[in-house]
Amino acid sequence: MNILQLLADSFLKILIPGIKVTIPLTVISFTLSLIIGTIVALVQFADIKVLKTLARFYIWVIRGTPLLIQLFVVFYGLPSVGILIDPFPAAVIVFSINEGAYNAETIRGALESIPKGQIEAGYCCGLNFIQVMWYIVLPQAFRVAFPSLANSLIAMVKNTSLAANITVLEMFMVTQQIVARTYQALALYLELAFIYLMFSTVLTKLQSYLENRFNAKGVQR
């Protein structure tokens, strides 16, 4: 089998796990990470001392340890204390928690960029803290944070390749299996890189389109 035929035969074998596993893993994990990041950012923004300390500790630990080690701790380490988690849910948990720490800092910075006068005006209108955040602050903060959050999403698509280390059958693991049979590492890994580039390019175009929409509405980043 020549190289071109091998690449043609392997393209769909790699792409299909990307659509069925890599993309769902990214979407689920990033959605959960946004929820985690928003909650942690709001806890810090509210400046409740005990909760803020816990939030800072969480961010410190997660940002200070490698993602791969976090995957190993959850998937290979927790069974030693009787906690067994299947590969895909384990990957979702780790990616969500990991990305949540980074998103928390992005969203916190966006929250702090909102003029204090708008918050005070909300209180003067009789709104409580949650209402002020929901109706006034968060909509603006997410627009400010959008470019950074979009970049994090694109990075997560590529980071999902680490899930192969805990036996998640995503694109990288499938490529490794094909390489083990054919010994054509260079060609197949370049093909894999091209598929990741396709996914990232689509997301980059979508990011650019949405940013232009925000700019057209007069939103300042």
Tag the structure with descriptive keywords:
221 residues, mainly alpha, MetI-like fold, 8 helices, 0% strand, flat
Task: Write the SSE topology.
Layout: H1 3-46, H2 49-64, H3 67-77, H4 87-113, H5 116-124, H6 129-159, H7 171-182, H8 185-216
Helix pairs in contact: 1-2, 1-4, 1-6, 1-7, 1-8, 2-4, 3-4, 4-6, 5-6, 6-8, 7-8
Name of the top-level CATH class: Mainly Alpha
Output the helix-strand order: HHHHHHHH
Helix content: over 70%
Beta-strand segment tally: 0
Instruction: Determine the N-to-C terminus distance.
Output: 52 Å
* CATH superfamily heading: MetI-like
Sequence stretches where pLDDT stays below 50 over 5 or more residues: none
User: If you compute it from the alpha carbons, what radius of gyration comes out, rounded to the nearest whole angstrom?
Assistant: 21 Å
Shape: flat
Q: Strand pairing plus helix content: what structural class?
A: mainly alpha
- Individual helix count: 8
Proportion of residues in β-strands: under 5%
| Number of domain modules | 1
Overall pLDDT score? 92
What is the CATH architecture term?
Orthogonal Bundle
**CATH fold-level name:** MetI-like fold
